[in-house]
Amino acid sequence: MPRNEINPSVHLHKQVNSVNALAIDSGGNVYVGGRTDGQSFPTTAGAYMRSVSPNTDTLNTVGFVSKLSADGKTLLSSTLFGGAYGFDYVNAIAIDASGWIHIAGRAYSRNFPVTVGGSRDSIESPTSFVALLNATASQLVYSTLPLIVTTWPAWLSMGMATRMSPDV
Predict the structure, then answer these.
(1) How far apart are CA 149 and CA 125, in angstroms?
(2) What domains does the chain contain, in order, with CATH numbers?
(3) What is the dihedral of CA 93, 156, 117, 109, to 10 degrees?
(4) Residues 6 or more apart in contact with residue 128 via CB below 8 angstroms
């Protein structure tokens, strides 16, 4: 697709530190995940997290998940994910048959979002996370910090495309 056909509001490159994850759903829509430190990162109305507290620490980053239309012209949904005052990022994305968004990555912020019943609710050192967002990225369904610190590829081998539950 020629560059001049891409909607500038979808062009995320100026606000992204890194893209670490890509997924495509059954409709051909593209999901992108990674990390950003941009306070003006494009999120969509109703997103789970639209902004984070500003921090002067140059290492402060937060994860993000964005869904682009199959033709790349429209930002369908986009949310930040993580806490303030840390170094959080999304390293893996999987989309299940219902369109729910499974993510995994690295967390190191004191106020990282976790849900009731997660295995841990505080961070003493960098750790991995697994989380589930609804299909529009407007609601956090599940988020936990596993008891075992591991690298993100191990979470992919768990079959993240199957909807997770608090029992996982």
Answers:
(1) 9
(2) 3-156 (2.40.10.500)
(3) -60
(4) 104, 105, 106, 107, 145, 146, 149, 150, 151, 152, 155
CB proximity list for 116: less than 8 A, separation 6 or greater: none
Tokens representing 116 are 């009731």
Convert the pLDDT of each residue in 56-83 to its tens digit.
Answer: 555 578 899 999 999 988 999 999 998 8
Q: How many Å is the maximal CA-CA distance in the chain? A: 47
**44 and 27 Cβ atoms separated by less than 8 Å:** no
Start-to-end CA span in the chain (Å): 41
> Cβ(142)–Cβ(131) under 8 Å?
yes
